[in-house]
Amino acid sequence: MENRLSKKLFWRSACFTLSFIFTLTLNVSAQTKEHETDATFIDRIYDQSLTDGRCYPWLEFLSLQIGHRLSGSPGAAKAVNWTKSMLDTLGLDSVWLQPCMVPHWVRGEPEQVRLIGSKKNGTFPLAALALGGSVAGKVQADVVEVDSWEQLDQLGAAGKLKGKIAFYNRPMDPTKIRTFEAYGGCVDQRVGGASRASKYGAVAVLVRSMTLRLDDFPHTGTMHYDSAYTLIPAAAISTIAAEALSQTLREEGRAKVSIQLNCKTLPDAPSFNVIGEIRGSDRPNDIILVGGHLDSWDVGHGSHDDGAGVVQSMDVLRVLKTLGYRPRHTIRCVLFMNEENGLRGGKAYAKEAARKGEFPLASIESDAGGFTPRGFSFEGDESVFGKFFEKLTTYESHFAPYGLQFRKGGSGADISPLRGMKGLLSGYSPDSQRYFDYHHAESDTFDKVNKRELELGTASMAALVYLIDKYGL
Amino acid sequence: MENRLSKKLFWRSACFTLSFIFTLTLNVSAQTKEHETDATFIDRIYDQSLTDGRCYPWLEFLSLQIGHRLSGSPGAAKAVNWTKSMLDTLGLDSVWLQPCMVPHWVRGEPEQVRLIGSKKNGTFPLAALALGGSVAGKVQADVVEVDSWEQLDQLGAAGKLKGKIAFYNRPMDPTKIRTFEAYGGCVDQRVGGASRASKYGAVAVLVRSMTLRLDDFPHTGTMHYDSAYTLIPAAAISTIAAEALSQTLREEGRAKVSIQLNCKTLPDAPSFNVIGEIRGSDRPNDIILVGGHLDSWDVGHGSHDDGAGVVQSMDVLRVLKTLGYRPRHTIRCVLFMNEENGLRGGKAYAKEAARKGEFPLASIESDAGGFTPRGFSFEGDESVFGKFFEKLTTYESHFAPYGLQFRKGGSGADISPLRGMKGLLSGYSPDSQRYFDYHHAESDTFDKVNKRELELGTASMAALVYLIDKYGL
Asked: pTM for the full model?
């Protein structure tokens, strides 16, 4: 009896095992085949981008024919019209402008910042740029160097900032491997420094430029006032100027600086996000977004920040279209207006998406320069994020031949207003070592962008779009 | 009985399991602690390099004060003396010059290559550089474009190359993600093209420059003659010139070109490898080598090829010395002479190492530019290689925070003569996208090198040296 049972059990289990192995083999073989199909298509995406890419000549036009394009400026208006006209040539299902009102700050006549009457070096100019949003002003006063918020508060409490120019000189930390971390570690000085010094009676602020290079380019960027305190002028000075000023203070015990800023905030101006899409065949209301921001600061060409993200996002749609890809979900390219000083485009887009009841399935932003791809970072609502990431690990293997890796982390400013809608948010991550050399400075010009690096970025984004479209999340 | 046996077995196995778990826990905890110690030291290496690195100012001097340094040239002699004098300041255990005779080829008066009497464009210059090793010559003849070896043989067999200039125009393949593969796929035209065309009666050769960019910089490089055939002049032309020449042939059916090269091969000249070392406390005869090559082509500054590898190798020793690291094995920096056109330095080094009975435990070459680190490639004798790689996978985890990955693959030309001695050979692999933009061209200048990218390379090499020194292979 026992023997018969054993035999029966043996055969049952053998049959089960065999059928299990059979099914497994079929599955594995189907999966392998699918993996190969995907790998082949992704290869075609990279080949298309590297042999027939449009992003580089587009960036050349945007940089050299249009140039910088701060919100509200003629350059921004030209960039809206020209990118729309380019999207119009791609045979997309829809291309449109999405209106939004934007802040309109102008620099006016070039700023003048001078160190006055140094014993050792006399009077000489400090390379400077007014911070975006600063008020105009003409002051001459002694400078007090501030290297931390604690120091600011101590100096302020002791009355030592009254009538003085506060000089924020805390540098980016060169030991951070990801330069964005180093930037994150000191940009608070630029954004909030003016009002925090004004609270203690300071009459103006100078901020060391947010860059890891020692050179003579000042780097501008946005700043905000706290309306509780007097609005005082605020400017960035180059790292060389910051070192000179700091050295003068150290060696001579004091330094007097004159500042003249001629900037002005005009009434808000009408502008647009530029949008193009390939309509999804299966789930048209689920949106896979690729985007960057069309506005830039009012210096250089804005080629890395964020001309690169703009032309890559446009080219993702062109590459997929050229390869005859028919998406299940709607694939949409969004060129956001006003990332730099207001995020009005991003907010308008999110509001409209909510109104239309769209689901932002995945939103990928390229706003970290046009350098060699290193990977993507992902963030999303925890309740859906778990599922996402299991598949993403499988997706990641497709990027190994191209040297990209995935990680959890922040995505992009323009897509951040979509956070509440529980889709996946992703930031395209190119190599970050050179980004802050050019960020918000005259040196962010077209010649700093390498054609292949830019094209590899387009291909990487298109490949991720393809996988997410094919498999969902 | 059966019951008692079961119990006994149960307790035995329980005791064994517990003691196993205990030992395992101890081991794992010891390993974790060791891993942390290593991670901390590697962090210090990166911090040292990024805050106090010397490689960048050294490269500035080598590039701007010495400049290019082809074997046998005054620049090469200066570079030998100056790098030795820098190594002398580092408090190493020994610094010395290792003699070797090197080829001495000189370009002479600038070459002149002109397209003659095009119907559409008249006569105009083609940007050209004689290939290293070419004979001088003055010829004027019709051009025949050659895009493959098969085509060459067909044209040759049909007598169509007789008295003609062969124009090799097979481009680098832009779809290769690693640009070195694309280079490997067409450099045969430059190296062997002259004699293969001379065999069929060609009077000179022009070669499309080995670059992925479309610009007007010709890229030189070494070539070899087969003494069985007449030695004919050979020059590289820029990709723009190659496109113009090809278009003329396509549109007008023929193109005539005049070539004048003024180069000369002089008798071999005496030169040196420059070597410095920190002597190992435990196994001084086992050598961990870091190196690059001191010579360059006779154009530009040779900053990426291979000034970067030179200063990084020097700085690896300085970083370890500054951190007070006392190595078990001898850590040696070797600045090889004559990689570009003879490899005499590499051969002399290997010969001397064999004579002294040294074991080249690990040799790491940096000769792929000073760009952001992407990883290391490894090759070695199969009989020892297996062991190596198990540990290397553990080592690799230490590089994850810095974005480096390991792979099997080629190492470097200068260390290749060590291959027979069964040590580990490694190539430092920076990002390759921009390398061939500048390789062997006037545009390989100091301003193309980013300080942080260079310093990160130094740190990566120093970290690998540290791990190999600590754990052996």
From this structure: 0.94
